[in-house]
Amino acid sequence: MSEHDCEELHRTNKRWKKEPAEVRWKIVQLLRRSLGSNKEFELHNYADLFVESRLKDGGMRFHGHGLWFTQDAFLENGRGAWMIEELLQIRLPDFTDELNADQLKAAVREANGQINLWAPR
Question: For the segment 100-114, what is each residue's pLDDT rounded down to a tens digit?
Answer without folding.
Answer: 999 999 999 999 999
